[in-house]
Every structure is written in structure tokens, then in C-alpha cells.
Amino acid sequence: MPTVPAYSITTDAIAAEQERSGTNPADIDVSKVLQLDELELRPLGPGDVRLRILAVSAEHNIDHATTADTINIADTRGGKMYPGNSATGEVIEVGANVTRFAVGDVVITHCNGGPDEYGFPTRIWAYDAEDSIGWYAKEAVVGDWQIIKAPLDCGLNLWEIAALPLRAPTAYHLWRRAIGIYRIKVPYERRARINVLGFGGGVSELFLMLAKSEGHRAFFCSGSPERRAALEKQGIEGIDQKAFNRFASRDDVRAFTKECRGRTDGEMMHAVCDMMRGPVFAAGLACTARQAVNVSAGWQLSQKVDYNSTLMSVKQVTIDHTHYETPEGCAAATELYGSVFKPTIHREIYGWADLPRAHQEMHLNTQTGIPIVRVADDMPETVKDLVG
Ligand SMILES: NC(=O)c1ccc[n+]([C@@H]2O[C@H](COP(=O)([O-])OP(=O)(O)OC[C@H]3O[C@@H](n4cnc5c(N)ncnc54)[C@H](OP(=O)(O)O)[C@@H]3O)[C@@H](O)[C@H]2O)c1
Predict the structure, then answer these.
(1) Which domains does the chain have, with CATH numbers?
(2) Is the dihedral of CA 190, 191, 197, 202 positive or negative?
(3) Pocket of ligand 1 contains residue 324 by CB under 6 Å
(4) Is this structure's pTM higher than 0.85?
């Protein structure tokens, strides 16, 4: 079978970088762990599609994989994994039974790695799904159930489209859970417009775009002035997280709570998207209104949370944990590209050789938006107007 250039993460590379940098995951140089490799593509089955990858986004799960800060997922995967679970590609070959896609289609992937009986993932593709091969590669073979036609006429450019395949379904699922749970407790006729808060990051900003599009008041608490400014243009109010020292102490959380009270005329936040946990979790709970919902699909700063159950019961606050969408939900989220989802993109579009640097800069948190890597030099005619 043909081999294609692809990035991999190995336990040897992680160990070598840990040896060099010490055991603190923050000190790891991610670009040294994410290494260019070769990948043998599996033969095209009857339900498969072969893709030429056009662009990918840098995703935070690669940070977790390269630093082994949650689990050493490369080790769990047998010592080596091929990462990358968000891609935009061109169909270059279809299996005998594939009817929904044709050669020349531009598609996006989703990373549901194996649905449970309700359609939700038990595993994530190119992370913990067994034998799953990621898409930080020049080409890929995927099952046709893993791709969705890219909405090329949605008003977004190719880089903006490439920012969304993983983050938009996550945000879409978080939002329908947050508002659904809230509405069980507080029906529309008792309160139509709610206050919605999100902390940092690409998923949260998309969550807030959904809230805003449905008429709610949305607040983005982030340390990045560029990202806050981009969202303010969409009517989403910015709160500078660094003004509260990223909630390092209880006094910082108190000051943040006071800020939220002031901005909401004492009402506080009815829905909160966390994604970070760690110190962000305490701040997210402290600023909740009665009957509020706190959702998260991430644990970037900590896997453990601690809260006062009595207090949350008395306020009837729901703490909800989510993971990722169903394949149908991923398709529904894609319908909202351009009309609702208008992502902020990092100012540099990285080249293929710069993919490790893109992840190191994500690790250092110096980017001004979602980082995109251009994989194909030659773009298909259908997207030439979308690459600028
Ligand atoms: N379950 C899922 O399906 C799923 C899907 C997507 C993401 N996730 C997880 O969710 C988390 C966020 O993902 P994302 O894609 O939204 O992230 P992202 O776009 O890569 O952004 C991460 C954000 O974290 C914030 N941040 C960094 N260091 C911080 C600190 N010390 N304190 C507070 N905030 C800090 C930064 O925001 P500011 O500097 O602007 O404050 C940064 O923009 C990651 O852990 C990721 O793995 C899970």
C-alpha cells in the first residue's frame, strides 16, 4: 500500500523531551514531540473514501497527547499514534458502496470515534479510539460515515471552515445541553433572555455565538485582547480574565463575581461554558444565578473538580459533563457555519512543515485565534476563491 507523509507522536519522543525538559508538562516543547513520519494507508474498503487533506486545525487534544498531562495516550495506543482529528479534504477516490460522495467533493471530518447506543461517542477518533489513524497527513482513508460535505457557499473562507470540524460540534452539543437543561427548570415564559458566559478558547467562543444568535446576552472571559475584540464585533461582551489573575486566589474569584454582578444588574450568569476546570471552575460556579447550568467538555487545567454540594443544591445549579456530538449532530452543527459560527483565526496560516510549531505556540498560548495549517500546496478549483 502507498505511504504518505504524516505526523506521529511516540512514547520515545515524549520520554526524550521529558528527559530534556523535566517532568513539568508546561516546560515540554511540543514541537519536538510531534514528528514528521510516514504512514501506510489501509486499502480502500467498499464503504471508504480516500481524501487529499487540504487544511487542518491545531487541536488541544494534541497538547494533552504530547505532554502526557492527563494520560499518556501514546503509551495506551501501543507506543505510537497518528494524531489529528479535524480536517478539510478533497475526495480523490470512493469505495464501491459509497453513494453520498463523489471524486472532487470537498468535505470535513468529524471525530466521533464510535457511537454508543444513542449516537454519542464512547471514544474520540485519533485519540483514544482503538486503531484510529489521524489526519495530520497528506492523505487519509476514512469511512464515509466520518465525513460531511463542506458548506463552501456559507460565507466563510477555507481557513475558517477548517477551524470548525471538531470545535463546532462540541460547542453545538454543549449549547443544546445547557439551554435544554435550563429550560427544564425555567420555561421561556418565565425568562426569555439569559446571561451566558464562556471562558477562553475556540469552543467557548462558538458556544457564545450560538447563545447570541438565539437572542441571549453573551460574555467572553478571556486573557486574549485580540480574541475579545473579535467577539465584541459580533456583539459578545469581553471580560479580561487576566484582570482577575486567572483566578489564582479567592480574592480574584470574589472580584470576578462582583464584576459579573455589576455587568448583569445583579442577575449573574444563567449558563456557563467552562472547558478549563482548575481555577476557572470555581469562578464559573461563583458567578452563577439560581437555576443556572455549568457545562464543560474539557479539563485543560484539571481533571478533578470540587464544589459545595449543599450550596449548589440550594441554588439548584446543575453541573453537566459532556463529550462530543452524534454524527447527526455534527451534520446539524455544520448547517450553522457562516450564519452562526464565524470563528476567529490566528493571524498566521501555518505551512505543513510548521505544524509542530503551531502546536507549540498553542501550548504557549500566544495565538490570536484558532490555528490553521495549510496541508495542500495545490488547492482544488472549487476552493481557489476561498483561500485568499
Ligand atoms: N470533549 C471534546 O470533544 C472537546 C472538544 C474540543 C476541546 N476540548 C478540550 O477543551 C479544552 C479547550 O479546547 P478549545 O479547543 O476551546 O481550546 P483552544 O481554542 O485551544 O483555546 C484554549 C484556551 O485556553 C485558555 N487558557 C490557556 N491557558 C489558560 C490558563 N492558564 N487559564 C485559563 N485559561 C487558559 C486560553 O484562552 P485565553 O488566553 O484567551 O484566556 C486559550 O485560548 C481543551 O482541553 C480541549 O482538549 C474537548
Answers:
(1) 3-163+344-386 (3.90.180.10), 169-321 (3.90.180.10)
(2) positive
(3) yes
(4) yes
